[in-house]
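Re: the pair you flagged

First of the two:
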Amino acid sequence: MARAAALKPEQVPADSKPTLDAFTKSIGFTPNMMATFAQSPIAFNAWAGLLGSLSKALDVKTRDGIGLAVSEVNGCNYCLAVHSLTAEHMAKLPAEEIILARKGRASDPKRDAALQFARKVIETRGQVSDTDLKAVRDAGYTDANVMEIVALVAMYSLTNFFNNVFDPEKDFPAVTPAGSI
């Protein structure tokens, strides 16, 4: 049960409306998570700005994979559903790659290194080892790329925490529980 209600269009604060309207136009509907998050124009617009900037980081398969890995660790079923859908339809990842990503892995060696590193970042709260950092660098990621991975982990964690706290009504197809994959 949702702990905060998704806003109806007439309830959206004026400072959140342009951002929410842009998402609605882009996606084709207003996800409940966004209609709930829009209650705080400061937090909502800050997140939207970060999302927009980080949509240029790395490639879509790696970004979606990181979103899946982080959401799995954080236990965010809403985000797992969203990222599973976007990974399938936007990143064109097959089902087996989506499952691997949820485990912090990928069949592509370079992407695998990024996902393993992202999972280490979230599991250790950023206290990664020198070996972890060397592995992602050895896979071909620059320090700037590593910073982008860390920023993606933080951004996905923000939405995971938001959804875990407020539990918006699910409006994306549910995914298989983690214990079953």
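Second of the two:
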Amino acid sequence: MAQFGFENDIHSILKLDMPITNAPMARWQRKASSSDASALSGLSPGKSANVSLSSSKTPSKTPGKNKKQTPSKIGGDRFIPTRNNKQMDVASFLLSKENEPMDTNAAVNPESQKAWSVSLNGYNIEDAKILHLGGKPLNAPEGYQNNLKVLYSQVTTPASIKKTRYISSTPDRILDAPELRNDFYLNLFDWSSQNMIAVALYNSVYLWDASRGDITLLMTMACNEDYICSLSWTAEGSYLAVGTSDCKVQLWDVERQKRLRSMTSHTARVCSLSWNDHILSSGSRSGHIHHHDVRVADHHIFTLTGHSQEVCGLKWSPDGRYLASGGNDNLVCVWSRVQEGSGGSSSNQVVHCWSEHQGAVKALAWCPWQPNILASGGGTSDRHIRIWNVNSGSCISSHDTQSQISSLVFAPNYKELVSAHGYAHNNVVIWKYPSFTKVAELNGHEDRVLSLTLSPDKSTVASVAADETIRLWKSFEEDPVKKKAQERMVKSTNGVIHQSIR
């Protein structure tokens, strides 16, 4: 009997987990029954359908949310269904499987794969993919250009092509210059407008035709102790002036290889020369500068006395208004043009005299596109390139090159400045003007570079050095497109001039 009593106690305890049939209705059951009753009463024939709910009842829908959020039409926004954990595991497996290489031999028919998936999993495995692309991707429209192509393609588009100028680090040609005198103060090198290079090798002058490569011995000094000190071509390139150590200035006709005259006026060697039309200016070791009118018998027409030591640099400006001179006394002087009919000796024609350099000034160059700009370079104790404004008399800029400066040349094709250096670099440097950004260094000479000269077409600079070589650097070749455009412009201008003459 005790056993039956224990079983009755167990059943009474279990009845506590069973629903209570005679208990009052739960709150959620009352809400559901009241909402159903109101909905039925609102739709009954005897009452209006516009009966509003009591304010105490919670509305079944949120106000303003009467529209369905999930589009019902196919082709609308992307629909992400609810998946169970098994489908999420399958989707994760499929994502990891896409990174594995595909086996081309084990190709499976999509229909049979779908049937296997339904029979094994109860659903199509393709439906388990989280990101599913429906349909094929559309091709780009005709004429469409991808602006991001440069990010992943090495094929350059026309907009990305940038032409860069190439400057060779090796000379275009090397010429021998045996017995070249290693003297910093001399000017033994010049290039004519007819493409002829003149170089002085000890007591002889040689000509090299850059077009054909022919070499000609022009002259040799009568006395072996004498030597050539300076050379300078006329503007048309037919005549060559030669300054010598016996205090003379000779004038030679190159075509006939004949000396036209020998002019004597200096008392020391003539180490610098410069032409201004029919006026030849010569600088001497005595510190004097002489003007010679080569048209008349009495050639010496003027003397400039401003330097106390050797005048090793001498250059007329492109417009012929000023003469610049540099000396071993570290001075840079600018002189005004000689007036016709004036004579004698005077130092009153000096316009400017600058003493900022701390070394001998041999390197002088006038800017072709700015006639009032003069560049000067100092020797070993100075090493500075200075830019002067002749109109204002001020120093515009100064740049330390860390090396002796023996020569300067402006390159108009790219508006650059070229400098020749001795100790300690022994090279040629191309500078962007006026920023003095270094464009290129031309190395190759084994000893100090003594002088520079520019070709008639301004595309090549020639350097002569104490290592007895002449090196031609083709560093300023003009852009062919710009060159043709300039030639067409010159032809059209000439055509207009000819028509106006007719």
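Residues 173-490 form a domain with the Methylamine Dehydrogenase; Chain H fold (CATH 2.130.10.10).

-B.
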